[in-house]
Hints:
It is globular, with a radius of gyration of 18 Å. By secondary structure, the protein is α/β, with parallel strands linked by helices. It has a single domain (about 15-20, about 50-100, about 130-310), classed as Ribokinase (UDP-N-acetylmuramoyl-L-alanine:D-glutamate ligase, 3-Layer(aba) Sandwich). The strands form 2 sheets. It has a 9-stranded mixed β-sheet with strand order 5-4-1-8-9-10-11-12-13, sandwiched between helices. A 4-stranded mixed β-sheet has the order 3-2-6-7. The chain has 10 helices and 13 strands.
Amino acid sequence: MKYPFELLPTADFDVVGFGTNAVDHLIRVPEYPAYDTKVKLSGYTRAAGGEVASTMVGLQRLGLMTSYAGRFGDDEEGEFGLQTLINSGVEVTYAERVSGASTQLGFIVIDERSGERTVIWHRDDKLAYTSSEAPLDAALRGRVLHLTPHDTQACVEMARTANKNGVIVSIDIDNAFDGVQALLPLVDIFTASASFPEKITGLTDERAALREIASRFGCRLAGLTRGRAGSIFLCGETFLETDGFEVPGGCVDTTGAGDAFRAGLLYGLLNGEPLETCARMANAVAALKCRQFGARAGLPDIQELDLFLKYL
């Protein structure tokens, strides 16, 4: 199945990401604690995360060229988070350190029985972009602009600039942020968590909700991630359902699996693969990520991804 849009043949970067970064504090426990109980810690890890930043690292690891636009605090966490992008080869011209701001933090409790996680997060208001602060030059420099809509009005300006210049706009969305209804008509590739479409359409049926999103907003490729169950996409009038993969050695941590999924999807699209292959790649990258703790440690390179898909 061919996707219903044309990508620019060349650009400075394959993908420019605008949106969230974070530093995650990952706490591993034998089981998720009940209210008013105590549980012994199995392990603790500090690792870089954030939806867009992690997707850029995933794409870079697969061999694409990426740039990240977003804000870090001027604290030690911000230095750590920014340096992880640089060390991964992500271009950071449009990354900023904000004086007096704290870097976004995530405190993540991981249940060792399943690898499922619960995220508690905080984003300093000083990190937010207004519409006039959006780094519009960055929106012109990729074949794809990939967004999270936390700073919705800035995202609208970025997406408008991308649309006018033939750059495909991709969104990672799991919450109905204020103003998102003005952003979604500017989005080509809509990929959401399974719970999101009901929030914006009121429809519980996945297929009906995806049809409504495509019809109401004009998103040309609309899809949902289903965790272990894989994914579903609507392309034109056709639905494509793709099974998930078992995590090699068992699921250790699902943190960042959605970010990894989007890295696999965009990698396939940018390499001209049919949508069926792109969806398999997306599910495979997500499964491989879950081998290790944190949003990025398990992200595969292209040799690992090819080998994994070859024998399945």
